[in-house]
Design brief:
mainly beta; single chain; 49% strand; 2% helix; 1 helix; 221 residues; 9-stranded antiparallel sheet; 9 strands; globular
Length: 221
C-alpha cells in the first residue's frame, strides 16, 4: 500500500530468520487456573540472525496472595504482576523490524485497550509501528460468586509499548470481570473483562470487553 508507513515499506519482500532462545521458568502456584498463593517468574533471552538480526530480553513476574476467606465459600485473592521486555538490533542493523517489535493491549496486557492497540506510531501516517521496549504492571482481586463455578474480579492495569523504559506516556485502565469454570472444560476457564482506559494517547485503539479462553490469569510478554 502506497500509504503504508516507511518502516513497513522497507520490509517488502521475503526474509530468512534463524535464532535461539533460552528460557527459565519458576512456578510455585498452588493451582494452574485459579491460584490462591505462590508465584511465577519467567525470564528469557533470544538472539536471531540471517536477515533479521535482533537480541531480545524479557522477564515477567506474578505473585498471588489470599487476603481473606469465607468458610465454605471461597477465597479473596490478590495478584500482582509485572513485565519488562527489550529488543535491540545487532550486526550493524539500524532498527528492529516491525514484526519483531512490541505492541501492548488486550488480555494479559492492558485491558480496556484493543489487542496490539498501544504502540508508537509513524509520524507521517499515524499508523502504529511498534516499540523496542515493553512495560506492564497490574493488580487484580478475584472473589467467589458461585463456589467452584464463577468468580468476580476487579483490576487495575498500567503500562506501555514504547522506544524507552521511562515512565512517560504510560497508559492505565480500571475494570471488572468474570471468571467462569465449566465442568466439561476440565482445567480450562473463560475470562470476561470489561476495562475503561483512564490514561491514554490519541493514537491508541480502545476496546471495552476482552475474552480469554483457556485461563483467566495474566499473560506474559
Amino acid at each position: 500500500d502506497s500509504g503504508a508507513p516507511q518502516a513497513v515499506k522497507d520490509l517488502k519482500g521475503s526474509m530468512a530468520e534463524a535464532g535461539a532462545e533460552l528460557r527459565a521458568i519458576r512456578d510455585t502456584r498452588d493451582n494452574l487456573i485459579f491460584p490462591t498463593k505462590g508465584s511465577t517468574v519467567e525470564s528469557s533471552i533470544e538472539g536471531s540472525g540471517l536477515d533479521v538480526n535482533i537480541v531480545r530480553f524479557g522477564i515477567s513476574v506474578t505473585k498471588y496472595k489470599t487476603i481473606f476467606e469465607f468458610p465454605r465459600w471461597g477465597k479473596h485473592v490478590l495478584s500482582f504482576r509485572g513485565t519488562m521486555g527489550v529488543v535491540r538490533p545487532h550486526s550493524g542493523e539500524k532498527e528492529v523490524p516491525v514484526f519483531e517489535r512490541y505492541f501492548a493491549g488486550g488480555t494479559g496486557s492492558l485491558r480496556g485497550f484493543d489487542f496490539r492497540g498501544v504502540a508508537p506510531v509513524d509520524r507521517k501516517t499515524g499508523e502504529q509501528i511498534g516499540g523496542d521496549t515493553l512495560l506492564l504492571a497490574g493488580v487484580e482481586e478475584t472473589f467467589p460468586i458461585i463456589k467452584k463455578f464463577l468468580n468476580g474480579a476487579f483490576f487495575v492495569d498500567i503500562g506501555k509499548a514504547d522506544n524507552n523504559l521511562g515512565l512517560g506516556k504510560m497508559r492505565a485502565s480500571i475494570g471488572t470481570g468474570l471468571r467462569i469454570t465449566l465442568p466439561f472444560l476440565g482445567r480450562m476457564s473463560i475470562g470476561l473483562d470489561f476495562g475503561i482506559p483512564i490514561m491514554k494517547e490519541s493514537e491508541d485503539n480502545t476496546k471495552l470487553m476482552s475474552i480469554n479462553i483457556g485461563g483467566a490469569g495474566a499473560g506474559a510478554y
